[in-house]
């Protein structure tokens, strides 16, 4: 059962406020939620079919996936005008991630072998999606630092444009990092699953 995930990303939309004076401050707010889709099956083939039929879709595609992470960025900034110059005041970057995972609801009566395969697969799907969420959180922090470090401008209009360009660049970098992670994961999927299964087999043998 191949693992393929895409992320839905919305652009950062910074709301603007103007202040005559004040100290700069920064904040990153990251939130995370989970949702599940149910699948049924008593064979590996049936579970594979259910994942392909019921799994979440990616933005702009009708293809189904075993799991997904939806990501939404947002933020706001204030600008401080002082002595004919404008600089960034307060910066807040928000990122919300919704992790969508499969839930096998017909496990009772399934073989031990299938249960072991499912445990290995579902744990790998969850690990994969958690990493997508972590990449998004890391990039939100990087965006906050980059915006806070922007140089002063002659006008707050110019400062606002600089912040907008930097946030767009941060989103592009985020998408690049997510795509690179998916490529690496796809290449290593078979080896990773074999390792997980071998570890679970050894764990069961040691427990006897």
List the helices and strands in order: EEEHEEHH
What is the tally of beta strands? 5
Structural class: alpha/beta
Q: Main β-sheet, in a few words?
A: 5 strands, mixed
- The amount of beta strand, in percent, is 25-35%
Q: Percentage of helical residues?
A: 40-55%
Explain how this protein is built.
This protein has 208 residues and is an alpha/beta fold. The protein has one domain (29-206). Helices cover 48% and strands 29% of the residues. It is built from three helices and five strands, in the order βββαββαα. It has helices at 44-54, 112-148, 156-207; strands at 7-10, 14-19, 25-39, 68-82, 85-104. Strands 1, 2, 3, 4 and 5 form a five-stranded mixed beta sheet that branches. A hairpin with a 2-residue loop joins β4 (68-82) and β5 (85-104). α2 (112-148) runs antiparallel to α3 (156-207). The longest helix has 52 residues, at 156-207. It starts with 6 loop residues before the first strand and ends with a helix.
Write the layout of secondary structure elements.
Elements (H helix, E strand, L loop, with lengths): L6 E4 L3 E6 L5 E15 L4 H11 L13 E15 L2 E20 L7 H37 L7 H52 L1
Parallel strand pairs: 1-4, 2-4, 3-5
Antiparallel strand pairs: 4-5
Helix pairs in contact: 2-3
Pfam family, one: DUF922
Keywords: Signal
InterPro entries: DUF922
């Amino acid at each position: 059962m191949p693992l393929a995930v895409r992320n839905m990303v919305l652009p950062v939309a910074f709301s603007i406020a103007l202040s005559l004076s004040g100290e700069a401050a920064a904040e990153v707010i990251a939130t995370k939620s989970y949702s599940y889709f149910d699948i049924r099956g008593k064979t590996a083939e049936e579970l594979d079919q259910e994942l392909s039929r019921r799994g979440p879709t990616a933005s702009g595609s009708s293809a189904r996936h075993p799991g997904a992470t939806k990501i939404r960025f947002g933020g706001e900034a204030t600008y401080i005008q002082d002595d004919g110059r404008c600089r960034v005041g307060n910066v807040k970057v928000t990122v919300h991630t919704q992790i969508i995972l499969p839930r096998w609801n017909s496990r009772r009566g399934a073989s031990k072998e299938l249960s072991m395969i499912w445990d290995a697969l579902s744990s790998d799907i969850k690990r994969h999606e958690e990493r997508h969420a972590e990449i998004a959180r890391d990039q939100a922090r990087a965006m906050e630092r980059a915006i806070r470090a922007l140089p002063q401008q002659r006008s707050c209009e110019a400062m606002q444009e600089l912040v907008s360009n930097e946030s767009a660049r941060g989103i592009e970098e985020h998408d690049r990092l997510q795509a690179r992670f998916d490529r690496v994961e796809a290449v290593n999927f078979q080896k990773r699953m074999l390792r997980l299964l071998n570890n679970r087999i050894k764990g069961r043998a040691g427990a006897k």
